LysR family transcriptional regulator (Comamonas serinivorans), 299 residues
Amino acid sequence: MRIDDLHALIALSQHPSLHATAHTLGVTQSALSKALARLEAQAGATLFERSSQGIAITAMGETLLRHARQVTQAMHDLETELGDERSAKAGLIRLAALPHLVPSFITPLLAEFHLKRPMARFSIRTMLSPQLLIHLEDGLVDLVIAAKPEASHPGLANASLGLLDVCMVARARHPRLTQLRSLGDLVHERWVLPDRGIYLRHWFEQLFARADLPLPPVAVESSHSQLAFTHLLRQSDLLGLVPRQHLSQPEGQGLAALPGVDMAAQYDLHVFWRAKGVLSPVAREFRDALLARGQDAPL
């Protein structure tokens, strides 16, 4: 089986249709269909069921997918080790992180790291924590900065970066700002919130459940970073959730933390890598630099 076809199989498992997968991979749908046809011919079975709603992986497809991930990861590890022998100070570091960490935490570290390792190259992706860990497990990135999940991920190793402080906010000139001092004061306010399934949304809803209060109405929910909605919060009476550090930065200007009790949360950010994967020397050095910065700089 071709290694490119195995990469295509992994991508197909992550998208609802051939069209969406082809767009992500930057290939034509015809080329992707041929790759899938080759795999199904070699497997002697249908790997994906096609319907008007899209594609769905079969049991045989799941079996091949499991091995495809192992093979493509082994190839990546081989290329990494060969590259290590050529140069211990160069190489590509594939990093994925929460969006708000790039300007405030990662970019300053890149500036320092580049002075020591000018030949290092970086590929940086941003997404929210559930997608980050999936990308790492699938071998698409080498290092991930994400909130520590409640569920275990036995194939991943991790180390703590520190606590991220997130607070409930409103625009500084919100007409009821000084009155919003308890959870009971918030139940009739409209909110901008993360999607369900994201840690912050779970924390938010549990606060009201423990207080035996109804959930407030949601005006906007999104899988994007909450920082994407700071302009909306400044221009409306909606409430939202923002990392406290950003209130003193340009994107947080015009916003204020709510003054009441139980209106902030802390969660543990970790650096993750594959426990049995091979990190290049320069990737290991950058991981250690991340951990050192986590001890010295606020998240």
User: Anything to note?
Assistant: The chain has nine helices and eleven strands. The chain has three domains: 3-72, 87-162+268-296, 164-267. The two ends are 45 Å apart (CA to CA). Residues 164-267 form a domain with the D-Maltodextrin-Binding Protein; domain 2 fold (CATH 3.40.190.10).
